[in-house]
Amino acid sequence: MKNEILYSFRRCPYAIRARWALIICEIKVEIREIDLKNKAQDFLNQSKTKTVPILIKKNNEVIEESLEIILWALSESKKENIKLIYLPDNKKKDIFEIINENDNEFKYHLDRFKYSTRYENSNEELHYSNAIKFINKWNELLTVNKYFFGDNPTIADWSIWPFVRQFKIACESQKRTNYFEPSIKKWLDSFEKDKDFKSLMYKYELWGPNSRKNYFPS
Hints:
This protein is of the alpha+beta class. 51% of the residues lie in helices and 8% in strands. The protein has nine helices and five strands, in the order βαβαββαααααααβ.
């Protein structure tokens, strides 16, 4: 039986959130791990953006954006009422607003903090302090609820935790301390210590035209 194909990169936060959605939605795909420094020609032929993740549907339609992959996974899942659970109608506006905040504003400062040498005239401390403002803002939400919008996660949590994790990794590599308040630390821990985290971050061999098929979740 043919599966959808996911081109992915293990550590990319956009790819992580797409894979997380596939796990929760119980959708199995063929996974192709891409070397971002030497991208396979087949991947380049399929992708307009030349970035991961992309998903090739069974009808060969290409989904280019991680958030669109998440929404597709919700629509395809056989789990009962999954869309209402993870994308409740009364929270849609707030959910998409906080995802947009992450993808545009927080990500901008995160990149320039973590990879400051890649950006000309980048002020690492300025971008760190701006990133911390979002971390603290989200922490305030998490002092009220276990997740951003209540006692259960939504796609907002799915979409943002990989970027908060990347921020943590950057802070650790620079020997920074006290960058997390307790609530957001506990929230991130709930994903990193989840039973599915090991499968999420499984290290697949790099894909090539002659590679054997690998499937996700493994």
